[in-house]
Amino acid sequence: MYDMNGKVALVTGAGAGIGSSSALTFARAGARVVVADISPEGGGETVELIREAGGEAIFVHVDVAQADLVEAMIRTTVGTFGRLDYAHNNAGIESPMAKLADGSEEDFDRVLAVNLKGVWLCLKYEIPVMVQQGGGAIVNTASIVSLLAQPDMACYVASKHGVAGLTRAAAIEYAEAGIRVNAVCPAIVKTPMLERFTKGDPKITEELSANYPLKRLIEPQEVADAVAWLCSDRASYLNGHALVIDGGFSVV
C-alpha cells in the first residue's frame, strides 16, 4: 500500500463503482478524502465506508457539468483540508445506444457536458490549487474507447477521446509546475453503468466477458489500484499517459 498520510484526495463520481473504490483506496493509504458525487445517497454511503475503515472523508454534492458547483467543490476541499494533492476526475455518464445519425442533439450535449466539459472544469479549478502549493497528481477516467471506437456509441466515444486529449494537453502545460496528469482507460467494468446496460441479465455479462482474453470483466478495485499507483510517487515519471486496463482486449 502507498503512503499517502497527510495528503488530500478528491474523487468525483465517488458514490459508486470505480469512484467509490478509488475513494476507499486513497483512504486506506492514509489520505483524507473528498467524496464528490451528484447523488447524496451514494456519496454518503462511500463516506460511511471510509469512516468505518478508520479514514477521514467528507461528502460534497456536485454536478461536474456546472462550473459554479465545481468551483465550490474545490473551495470546500481547500477550506476543509487546506490543500489538494490528488484528484481523480471520474464522474461520467453513458450515452444511449444509437448509430451516429440516429442520436439526438440533446443526448450529445449532455454526454459531452458531463464526460468532457466536466473533466475540463475539474482540471480548471484543481490545477491552480496545485500550482500554488507546488505540485500534485491528477488522474482522469477515460476509457478504452478513448483509443478506439465501438459502434452505436458515437457520443460516448467522442467524449472519451476528448478526455484523453485534455489529459495530454494538461500534462505538458503543467509539468514544470510539478503536476502530473494521466488517464486510466478501462474496458467494461462491473459497475452500475454496466447493470443499466445489461438490465441485470447475467447472460449478457457472460457474452461480454467471452470477448476478453481473460474471460472476465474488470473489477472496480482493479481500476482504483491503478489510479492510486498513478498518483503515488512510485509513478513519479509517468505524465500524459493513457493507461489501458482491458485484459488484452485492444491487442486481439
Strand content: 15-25%
- The helix content, as a percent range, equals 40-55%
Number of helices: 8
Number of strands: 7
Taking the alpha carbons of the first and last residues, their distance comes to 32 Å
For the biggest β-sheet, the strand order reads 3-2-1-4-5-6-7
- Work out the radius of gyration: 17 Å
Give the biggest sheet: 7 strands, parallel
Structural shape: globular
Topology, pairings included?
Layout: E1 8-12, H1 17-28, E2 32-37, H2 40-52, E3 57-61, H3 67-81, E4 86-89, H4 105-133, E5 136-141, H5 154-174, E6 179-186, H6 192-198, H7 202-209, H8 220-231, E7 242-245
Parallel strand pairs: 1-2, 1-4, 2-3, 4-5, 5-6, 6-7
Please name the defining characteristics of this protein:
about 250 residues; globular; 7-stranded parallel β-sheet
Descriptive report:
Helix 1 (17-28) packs across helix 8 (220-231). With 252 residues, the protein is of the alpha/beta class. It has helices at 17-28, 40-52, 67-81, 105-133, 154-174, 192-198, 202-209, 220-231; strands at residues 8-12, 32-37, 57-61, 86-89, 136-141, 179-186, 242-245. The protein is globular and about 45 Å long. Helices cover 46% and strands 15% of the residues. Strands 3-2-1-4-5-6-7 form a 7-stranded parallel sheet, sandwiched between helices. It has 8 helices and 7 strands, in the order E-H-E-H-E-H-E-H-E-H-E-H-H-H-E.
